[in-house]
Design brief:
The chain has helices spanning 2-20, 30-50, 52-59, 65-89, 94-101, 103-115, 117-120, 125-142, 151-171, 173-178, 187-211, 216-236, 245-263. By secondary structure, the chain is mainly α. α4 runs parallel beside α11 (187-211), α5 packs antiparallel against α8 (125-142) and α11 (187-211) runs antiparallel to α12.
Length: 264
C-alpha cells in the first residue's frame, strides 16, 4: 500500500514538473529564476534605450551610427523580451504576450523612421522601411488584428523571422548589412551587429519554443541558452565580442546557471 501511494504521489508530482520545466537550485524555484532574470533584462534594456552613452562607456567603445542603432534597438528587444516572458509566466496567451513584447521594438522603429536615422547615415531603403513594416505587421498579427493569419501562425513566423535574421547578422554580418544598404563597417560595428543578432536569436528562440508548445519556463530557459552560447562563441571563439572580458564572464555565468535551472 505504501509503495502504491509513493508511486502514485510521484506520478502526480511528475506531471506538473514536466509542464513547468527546470529544477530547484538552493531552494530557488525555476519560476523565481525566470522572474529574476526578466527583471535583470528589463533594467539592462532600459539602460540601452535611455542611456546609450553609459552603455558605450561600459563597453569601452567610441559611438558610431551602427553601435548607437543596435544599442538602442537591442535595448528595445530586451525590454520586449522581459515583458513577453513576464506575461507568459502569468498565464497570458503566448502569441498575445509576444505581440505586446514586440511593441517596444516597434516603437524604436517608429522613432528611427520619424527621426530619419537611415537617411542621415546614408543607408538604403531597406534599413528605413523594412523593420517598421515587418514589426508593425507582426504586432498586428500576433495580437489577433489580422483575420487572414492565425495568431499561432504569426507566432511561428515571428520566431522564424527573428532566428533567420539572427543567423545572418551573426554569421555573415558584413553581407547581411549590405542587404540593408549599409557597407564599410568598422570592426566595432561588426561586433555590435553580431550582438544585435544574438538578441534577435534570444527572442526568436523564446518565440519558437512557445510556438512549439513548451512551457513559459522552458521557453525562457531556451532563450537564455541560445544567448549564452552565441555570446560565449563571440567571446572565446571568434574573439570579437565588445566590452570588458570580466563583464562578459558575468553575463555568461548568469546565462549558464539560469538556463540550467530552467531547462534541467
Amino acid at each position: 500500500m505504501l509503495a502504491t501511494l509513493a508511486f502514485t504521489s510521484a506520478s502526480v508530482l511528475k506531471a506538473p514538473l514536466a509542464l513547468r520545466g527546470g529544477m530547484t537550485i538552493a531552494g530557488v524555484e525555476p519560476e523565481q529564476v525566470a522572474t529574476g532574470l526578466n527583471a535583470l533584462l528589463a533594467v539592462q534594456g532600459l539602460m540601452m534605450t535611455q542611456n546609450q552613452g553609459k552603455i558605450h562607456e561600459v563597453y569601452g567603445v567610441k559611438p558610431t551610427p551602427i553601435t548607437e542603432l543596435f544599442t538602442e534597438n537591442g535595448g528595445g528587444i530586451l525590454v520586449g523580451f522581459a515583458i513577453a516572458a513576464t506575461l507568459v509566466l502569468g498565464g497570458t496567451d503566448a502569441a498575445e504576450a509576444v505581440g505586446y513584447g514586440n511593441i517596444p521594438n516597434l516603437l524604436q522603429n517608429i522613432k528611427d523612421f520619424v527621426g530619419g536615422t537611415a537617411d542621415k547615415n546614408g543607408w538604403g531603403a531597406p534599413a528605413k522601411f523594412v523593420p517598421l513594416v515587418v514589426n508593425a505587421a507582426f504586432c498586428a498579427a500576433l495580437l489577433g488584428k489580422v483575420d487572414a493569419v492565425s495568431t499561432a501562425d504569426a507566432l511561428k513566423a515571428f520566431a522564424i523571422w527573428n532566428l533567420a535574421n539572427a543567423v545572418g547578422l551573426y554569421a555573415l554580418p558584413d553581407k547581411a548589412m549590405e542587404g540593408w544598404g549599409i557597407s564599410n563597417m568598422a570592426p566595432i560595428d561588426v561586433s555590435f551587429t553580431k550582438l544585435f543578432g544574438t538578441l534577435l536569436g534570444t527572442m526568436g528562440a523564446f518565440a519558437y519554443q512557445l510556438s512549439d508548445g513548451k512551457s513559459a519556463v522552458e521557453a525562457i530557459g531556451a532563450a537564455w541558452a541560445v544567448n549564452t552560447a552565441m555570446s560565449g562563441a563571440s567571446r572565446y571563439i571568434t574573439k570579437d565580442a565588445p566590452g570588458d572580458e570580466d563583464k562578459g564572464r558575468f553575463w555568461l555565468a548568469v546565462g549558464a546557471v539560469g538556463s540550467a535551472a530552467m531547462l534541467l
